[in-house]
Amino acid sequence: MHADIARPLAMMISQSRFPIIRSEGWFALALMARSREGSATVSDVFQQLETFGILVSTITGQSTTGAGVPAANNTTGHSRDNSDSSSGSSGVRSDQIREMQAKDRENALVLVNELLTNSVRVDSIFVDLLRDFSSEA
Fold it and tell me: If 0-12 CB within 10 Å is exposed, 13-18 middle and 19+ buried, where does residue 34 land?
């Protein structure tokens, strides 16, 4: 697998204009992470703070600081920050946005689980994300 194949997918999950494209990016990354080689490729993308922060934010539903840590202003850990998911020109209703966010979260959790299963990147934050947020899905 080419080392740069996951980069366009990272661009898909980092954009906020088209929620459906973001969802497809999460799905594709989760599928790629199912193999050891794919997990290594996907893990490289999440070495960047921006994409790692997006992963944490997608799973926790909170805005993140620059270090990918949930911001301190939301202590419940259960609400979604919809500021980057407004329907705007995309014409998507808020219930569709919530549904897509739930799917994104599910795919991001599958992604983290596959990264841990393939022992590519065993960071404590990945273990914490699965432990703290997978039961809420």
Answer: middle
